[in-house]
Amino acid sequence: MDTYENIKTGMVLCDGERKGGYAFTCRGQVYTCKGCGNTGCRQAKEDACSKQAFSVTFQCLSCGAIGQQETATLDYTQTQAWLNPSEDAHAG
Ligand SMILES: [Zn+2]
Ligand SMILES: [Zn+2]
């Protein structure tokens, strides 16, 4: 995980690799699925990024839910959830 890099830069950008002949870092906006916690970028085409999590219709590629995306921010608790995925806080 290169999450620390994103935190350092102050932005939550996808650090996956774009596919399709262009080997460059994606740096797209990152979203989190409220249904399953899947986190990654959204791409117009399927399998366009190594860390893609959502299709163009915001369908989660992991659980199939549509419209359950949440914009990933640098919110402290959310960041902790990423760093400690096994400790899923359900305090509320
Ligand atoms: Zn990406
Ligand atoms: Zn999902």
Give the tags:
single chain, about 90 residues, alpha+beta, four-stranded mixed sheet, 2 helices, about 15% helix, about 15% strand, globular, binds zinc ion
Give structural notes.
The protein has one domain (3-70). It is 16% helix and 15% strand. The chain contains two helices and four strands, in the order αββββα. The protein has helices at residues 3-9, 76-83; strands at 30-33, 39-42, 52-54, 69-71. The longest helix has 8 residues, at 76-83. The protein is globular. The mean pLDDT is 81. One zinc ion binds at residues 33, 35-36, 38, 60, 62-63, 65.
Indicate the topology.
Elements (H helix, E strand, L loop, with lengths): L2 H7 L20 E4 L5 E4 L9 E3 L14 E3 L4 H8 L9
Parallel strand pairs: 2-3
Antiparallel strand pairs: 1-2, 1-4
The structure holds zinc ion (ZN) (2 copies).
Low-pLDDT ranges: none
Largest sheet: 4 strands, mixed
What does the radius of gyration come to? 13 Å
Structurally, the number of domains stands at 1
User: What hetero molecules are bound to the protein chains?
Assistant: zinc ion
**Strand/helix succession:** HEEEEH
Give the % helix: 10-25%
Beta-strand residue percentage? 15-25%
Largest sheet strand order:
3-2-1-4
The total strand number stands at 4
First-residue to last-residue Cα separation: 28 Å
- How would you sum up the global shape? globular
Q: Count the helices. How many?
A: 2
Structural class: alpha+beta
Overall pLDDT score: 81
